[in-house]
Model the fold of this input.
Amino acid sequence: MARSDAIDLDRLIELDKAHLIHPVSEFRKHEVKGPRIVVGGQGIELELADGRRVIDGLSGLFNINVGHGRSEIADAVAEQMRKVAYYPSFWDFSTESAIRLAERVVGLLPADRELSHLLFTTGGSDANEAAFRVARMVQALRGRPERTKILSRRHAFHGITRAAGSATRLPAYHALTSLDPAHIETAAPYCFRCDFDKSFPSCGLACAEDVAEIIVREGPETVAALIVEPVMGTGGIIVPPEGYFDRLQEICREYDVLLILDEVITGFGRTGRWFGMEHWDVRPDIVSFAKGITSGYLPLGGIALTEDVYATIRDDSPRGLPFMFGFTYSNHPASCAAAMANLDIIEREGLVDNARTTGNYLRERLAKGLASHPVVAEVRGIGMLVAIECTQPGTKQPVGGKPSSYPAKIARHCFDNGLIARALWECVALAPPLCTTLEEADRIADCVIAAFAEVGSGATQSS
Ligand SMILES: Cc1ncc(COP(=O)(O)O)c(C=O)c1O
Done:
């Protein structure tokens, strides 16, 4: 930013502190520290108002899959807006960009899962709200209106609205608010921190069996659906063990519980496949997605329904009763145009394959570089999703005995050296844009390894 803008920058900082609320910020700290104002971005780098350049090692919030500065997306949106910026898709109104995007996403979803019909929302939370609502409608239309409960797993993040927020099972989000009692918690496949203190494979997939036990405990006749992330994201990049999804699938079939896959982070290439579900033979009834579909250039999410689920609503709804659901901005044409241009880039540049190869390379470099570090217990992940699990050496306790303070120190150190990394509970998480090159992965790995070396065991650092 030019020197002449400096006064404006001070003013902006004051105005931010005076009027803008930041998600997941502590207001009293923010009023002291002020914002980090982003003024530009190109590729994997962001430019900050104070002139610094930093690598966006988390792709914003796991969403900027094609990286920053893609003006062709802006051009596509502008072109759509000049034609028709917006019109609702309620009743029988439609727009070409929404129709074409629906067809395209159906083509990208694995064909054998028979996901044939889409409703676009504005993000992941409202996609999951839609998924729950559809699940309950379908259960009711199939003659089981008392099936209303939704199961989700500890460490899950499914959004922050009432129902999606109640499916989110990270206690920090619920410190001051209550959960909807229709949402029931089950175990997660978090092998490193197994709820049952067992190890795979001798555990017999106790975490999956817990789902069956909870369904039986609640009464199968009361359970509508189970929602799961293929790879848990905000909970700490948790990749399920082999066989987990096979068992989950069997349990859902046995008890007639609909399976919702939340592909909000894992969709559109993040895991090295177009969708996370492609890593396993899992057949969801409903899929939710968001984030990577537009790489964040405009807000968009959505749900995909199987032919079977769609047909239930079409064929079994009472005549004269429409599908009573939709948001003002469902199927937004400008957001759909952004998604089309974003998908063009992902396809043209082979970014799904790149997420796999560069992600593997980044994890290998980190695993090697941190192998002898006293607090690094595990480097894990899949595709362009990485977690470095930190523990008090030889235990599973937080480093220094203080929950989550060590990963935050690493993240701060990384930022001071030009990389945005994120502290996720006892992990340091990375999820760079899918366009990251091997050279850029080296820069990221070097910065993280240096941060761990500098912070050491954490014993002498202030938090
Ligand atoms: C797996 C998952 N589902 C749902 C959401 C909610 O999406 P949004 O923030 O767009 O409402 C998120 C957000 O991080 C997510 O990670």
